[in-house]
Amino acid sequence: MSYNVLSSYADDFINDDEILETLDYAEKHRSDRPLLLNILEKARKCRGVTHREAAVLLECDQPDLNEEILSLAKEIKLKFYGNRIVLFAPLYLSNYCINGCTYCPYHGANRHISRKKLTQDEIRSEVIALQDMGHKRLAIEAGEDPNENPIEYILESIRTIYSVKHKNGSIRRVNVNIAATTVENYSLLKKEGIGTYILFQETYNKKQYDGLHPSGPKSDYFYHTEAMDRAMDGGIDDVGCGVLYGLNSYRYDFIGQLMHAEHLEAAKGCGPHTISVPRLRAADGIDPAKFPDAVDDKTFCKIVACLRIAVPYTGMIVSTRESERTRAMILPLGVSQISGGSRTSVGGYTEKESPVDTAQFDVSDTRSLDEVIFWLMQNGFVPSFCTACYREGRTGDRFMSLLKSGQIANCCHPNALMTLKEYLEDYAQEKTRIAGEQLIQKELENIPNQAVKERCRKYIAEEVQGKRDFRF
Ligand code: SF4
Ligand code: SF4
Predict the structure, then answer these.
(1) Using one digit for the tens of pLDDT, what is the confidence trace for 289-348?
(2) Of all atoms in ligand 1, which is nearest to the CA of residue 141?
(3) Global confidence as pTM
(4) Which residues' Cβ are closer than 6 Å to ligand 2?
């Protein structure tokens, strides 16, 4: 097998020899200032760099150039995503799972954990609870179990979620994180109007992957790694990738992640819509100390910065796995979406006490959504509940061309302010509402297009009268 970015075989587009050679190349050039400066100059054009160039930046051992890497990542984040942070929440439908992932408490052999699958009525209750918090965008999660969680159950659940309209609430975008499946099933998901299909690779190192996935359908590395190709063949434009940092050498997985993005762009015409950057966390029966590849905070920041530089057009997501302190550190380096007020257990939004025995992982950031919103604003960010692109059909390459043209700022910024205003009207605590009103007035000035700015002012005034769901 040799490296081939266009091949449909995982062995070719995530080629082990190419990753090993890249690791070797990066190691040899970590102090090569002329090369590093060249890569940084290319990166400043904001059109990305190759996996090999990004690997050299990640390895760079020159303190001043490392500072430049971080500040360039911040510049790129501001250029494409401004100071906005889009909010979402996970919704766990079922923790039945027949896979054997050694790092996840939902693995089939875990007998300590209670198994639970939400009924459609329970889903409605969870969605009402999420709407009452102010959420508009969900990511549904379910283990892999063809008997308990067949595709029909997932499709019905999506219909239920979209159907719930409680007070002024509505879920406007459902992203789906379920196991790798067939082209036919991806087409069915597309027909139900899903946003992004999310599937974490966990690790791109096949040998390591095989050890971590000893049983169940997920043990097929190739089927798993080629899932995004099938999703796109099934008509899903927006796919979300991610590795679980800590399962394997971060250097290897960082390169694999970028090769995967390059493959999707080359073979399918559009790279991933988002990349998530989860790190291994403690959970029932899972001790992170047993995983020697844990990533420290400094390295984590560098990974986020180098991803931002390498794939400027790809959104980056960080979840409540990370603490407030870590989130504060990495947000400016390139993150565009975060979860807030999350429960990582099945039924967690409606049960009074967090049912920890069904949680997939421990949440580090346990603040309420309102606290997160207030905190974001205090730290100079504009919280956004925008779902406009997907609802306007701006998905896949249509979304990417708008982003690349620089015109997206005339959509994202007013949409952020209008959806924030909805939140302030319907859900915010008093302190948050006051801070939010001030922020909106200030940020209206930062909408580049004058006509859009005026329409945005008008829509915000209409929101005060009770109208909802404006978008550009
Ligand atoms: Fe199942 Fe996913 Fe957990 Fe693996 S990571 S055991 S597939 S829920
Ligand atoms: Fe995201 Fe599109 Fe909304 Fe911008 S306008 S925040 S890209 S959905």
Answers:
(1) 788 898 999 999 999 999 999 999 999 999 998 999 999 999 999 999 999 999 999 999
(2) 8
(3) 0.96
(4) 86, 384, 386-389, 408, 411-412, 415
| Ligand 1 pocket member 244 (CB < 6 A) | no
Q: Is 144 in the pocket of ligand 1 (CB under 6 A)?
A: yes
Mean pLDDT for 129-139 is: 98
Tell me if 97 CB under 6 Å of ligand 1: yes
Q: Could you give the CA distance from residue 145 to residue 95 in angstroms, rounded to a whole number?
A: 9
For 327-343, give one letter per residue: b (16+ CB within 10 A) or e.
Answer: bebbbbbbbbbbbbbbb
Q: What is the extent of the structural domain holding 62?
A: 10-78
Of 78, 97, 121, the domain-final residue: 78
Predicted local confidence at residue 356, as pLDDT: 52
Distances (CA, A) of 282 to 11, 104, 291, 312, 353: 32, 9, 11, 31, 19
Using pLDDT thresholds of 50, 70 and 90, give the confidence band for residue 360. Answer: confident
Helix axes 409-426, 450-464, angle to 10 degrees: 10
User: Does one domain contain both 198 and 311?
Assistant: yes
Q: Do the bridges between strand 84-94 and strand 315-318 make them parallel or antiparallel, or are there none, so unpaired?
A: unpaired
Do 349 and 447 fall within a single domain? Answer: no
pLDDT in tens, 273-298: 999 999 987 777 777 778 889 899 99
Residue of 83, 411, 449 with the most ligand 2 atoms within 8 Å of its CB, for mutation: 411
3-state secondary structure of 471: coil
Residues 285 and 343 in one domain: yes
User: Which residue's C-alpha comes closest to atom 6 of ligand 2?
Assistant: 412
